[in-house]
Amino acid sequence: MAADQRGMSLDEVLALPATVNVVTAARALGIGHNKAYDLIKAGQFPVRVLPMGNTVRIPTAALWEALGIGPLRVAVGGPSS
Question: pTM for the full model?
């Protein structure tokens, strides 16, 4: 069975951990992972990348920014009175 190539829903993108791998970032952006790696090598990936030796991680906050998802505000202690 072929890998799931569909993009991600907003809920899926918002549930991502602090950093993600290139395959996950590519899926969120709606592009293939080969294209994502090509863009990274060319210095044209639309999101800041964190090279870590042979691994590349993508900060989720930067991914949200590229997708036009604003910063999230978390209410602490429930609604204000």
Answer: 0.77
